[in-house]
Design goal:
- With about 600 residues, the protein is α+β, with helices and mostly antiparallel strands.
- It has 14 helices and 17 strands.
- The strands form four sheets. A five-stranded antiparallel sheet has the order 2-1-5-4-3.
Length: about 600
């Protein structure tokens, strides 16, 4: 509270505190001196009185004259301070008393005529001695009322004097403090004006040549320096703002991400909008480990920065909202600030192009190898059969060879059809047209039923809640391959073979399930069934392109396929294709 007083209040308070302190010290000294003097006077008078009474009590004690002793004590009425007095004999009994029998206090009293103040009274014990013979003693008790009264009076007088002195000191302090507080208040007023208006051209007017005048000079000099620096700072800020605006425009509009990250916590301290967009996360102060970077990538980047001081074109992979992204990170380590300063580029297109090129090259090599083999194999078989048939004379044998030649030609034709289908799927864009899924399945079954195994039961369950829009040709390819495979790979030992076709069409998708209780696919082959030219069983007579084509067609339609299978128990393929019914104008839905 005292710290918050004004300088005027503090000066007045200091003067009053000094004044009051001096008064208190003086008053205490006066009080102690006055009180001590009063007690000494009372003690001196009562001791002398006790000695006189003792001298007059010698004769009454020697002759046992109590009346005479009482008369002596009665003369003490002129001393109002005396409460009581009694004369004791040498045997300790009270010989005579004044006023009342005095009860001696419970303390040891000196038997030498000296008084002791105790519990508001003065106690005096004076021995009665005659010719070195102890005849008894006098006990006298006096009150201190007069002392208390006089000390009270002096205290009241001192308080009155003190109050008058304090008032006078306050008046003088209130007037004299202006010599110091007025210049200081003027300085404070000037500083307030400067702080409120920010105008450093204001100056204080010097009126004194003392320390305050020197303070004014230094204050004005300081204002001159501040005003100059303010002008320079304004120029610098303007130039800095222009430069910062240019940098910020470049920073925020950059086609690459720019960022600063804490090397220990992987927290992005600062990043431009492009960085957050590439990372596909909202701006945050949390660590990006687990959100963007894996623990492995974070550890590798940190190790490279600490060991080399930089990192260049480090690739990370992201998968957000079922989309895949590739990013490249480069930058350097600022060890003074323990910060990684870097840039980030989206290399998804380049990476996908590279991976696609790599995949295409691999498939092309594989395609050329298998195609040449599968094309040449039927041709060699045909040439061999023709050569053999030339040496046959039996028409029946020649016709048998013709049948074998026909099978080889059909096999070659199936391979060519698959190759054309694969080529067409790669080149032709998908079309959005109304597909009657029930009619399409029935037409596929009617064609395949020409080679349907005996006892094979066909089950169909079609639930169509919406019209289905997709690519009719590609849907035909999917159904034809999946259903024909279910026909081909039936289990001969199965008593009740079946193929179950379940379809559910909604506004969002068409869900297809083709299930059979045939031979099934071995666990070691399940991861390879969608590869080009892969045959899952020895009983396969096809080209190994069927499921590969199905997978490519479904990918082209942005759909998905999965399957479950068990040896000798059967296989179930699940296909989901997006329904584009909401993307087609109402005029085209019919």
């Amino acid at each position: 509270m005292l710290k918050n007083l004004s300088i005027k209040g503090k000066l007045i308070l200091i003067i009053l505190v000094v004044t009051i302190s001096v008064l208190i010290i003086g008053f205490v000294a006066i009080y102690v001196s006055f009180s001590s003097a009063l007690k000494d006077d009372l003690n001196h008078n009562m001791v002398n009185t006790a000695k006189i009474v003792a001298d007059y009590s010698i004769t009454p004690l020697q002759f046992g004259d109590k009346d005479r002793a009482i008369d002596i004590l009665e003369k003490l009425k002129n001393e109002p301070q005396i409460e009581c007095v009694h004369i004791e004999g040498y045997n300790g009994g009270i010989f005579a008393f004044y006023n009342s029998e005095c009860k001696m206090p419970d303390l040891v009293l000196p038997n030498n005529g000296k008084g002791i103040f105790h519990e508001g009274f003065l106690h005096v014990v004076q021995p009665i001695v005659f010719k070195n013979k102890n005849l008894g003693r006098i006990y006298l008790r006096a009150n201190t009322k007069e002392i208390d009264f006089k000390t009270t009076q002096i205290i009241v007088n001192m308080l009155v004097i003190g109050l008058v002195v304090v008032i006078v000191a306050f008046v003088f302090a209130n007037r004299l403090q202006r010599l110091i507080s007025s210049p200081v208040e003027n300085l404070i007023k000037t500083t307030h004006q400067i702080s409120e208006n920010g105008n450093y051209s204001i100056r204080v007017q010097k009126k004194y040549d003392d320390e305050i005048g020197s303070l004014y000079d230094n204050f004005n000099h300081m204002l001159n320096q501040i005003e100059y620096r303010q002008q320079e700072e304004t120029k610098s800020k303007k130039a800095l703002a222009e430069s910062e605006e240019k940098f910020r425009n470049i920073y925020q509009n950059s086609i690459i991400g720019i960022f600063q990250a804490d090397i220990n916590t992987a927290e992005l301290i600062e990043a431009n909008d492009k960085t957050w967009k590439m990372l596909h996360i909202s701006p945050t102060k949390d660590s990006v480990v687990g959100k963007v970077l894996s623990l492995r990538d974070a550890a590798r980047i940190r190790k490279s920065l600490l060991e080399k001081g930089f990192i260049e074109n480090y690739e990370i992979f992201l998968e957000k909202d079922e989309k895949k992204y590739w990013l490249s990170i480069s930058g350097k380590y600022l060890n003074q600030r323990n910060v990684f300063e870097g840039v980030i580029k989206d290399i998804t297109e380049e990476k996908e192009s590279f991976l696609e090129l790599k995949r295409v090259n691999f498939e092309l090599d594989n395609f050329v190898y298998h195609t040449s083999h599968d094309l040449r194999s039927p041709l060699l078989s045909i040439l061999g059969l023709i050569s053999i048939s030339k040496n046959e004379k039996s028409l029946e044998s020649v016709m048998h060879y013709f049948d074998l030649i026909e099978k080889s030609v059909k096999r070659l034709d199936a391979l060519v059809i698959n190759l054309l289908t694969l080529s067409r799927n790669s080149r032709v864009d998908k079309q959005k047209q109304l597909v009657d899924i029930k009619e399409t399945i029935q037409e596929t079954i009617e064609i395949l039923n020409l080679n349907k195994p005996e006892k094979l039961e066909i089950k169909m369950d079609i639930k169509q809640h919406s019209k289905f829009f997709s690519d009719q040709t590609r849907v035909n390819i999917i159904l034809n391959n999946l259903i024909s495979n279910a026909y081909k790979y039936q289990n001969p030992s199965q008593d009740q073979p079946y193929v179950s076709i379940e379809v559910e069409v909604t506004d969002e998708a068409m869900n297809l399930k083709v299930e059979d209780n045939g031979l099934g696919i071995s666990p070691e082959s399940q991861s390879k069934v969608f590869e080009m030219f892969y045959r899952a069983t020895d009983q396969a007579h096809g080209s190994g392109l069927g499921l590969y084509i199905v997978k490519n067609v479904i990918d082209k339609l942005k759909g998905s396929i999965r399957f479950t299978s068990a040896i000798r128990k059967g296989t179930a393929f699940h296909v989901t294709l997006p329904n584009h019914v909401n993307e087609v104008p109402e005029s085209e839905e019919s």
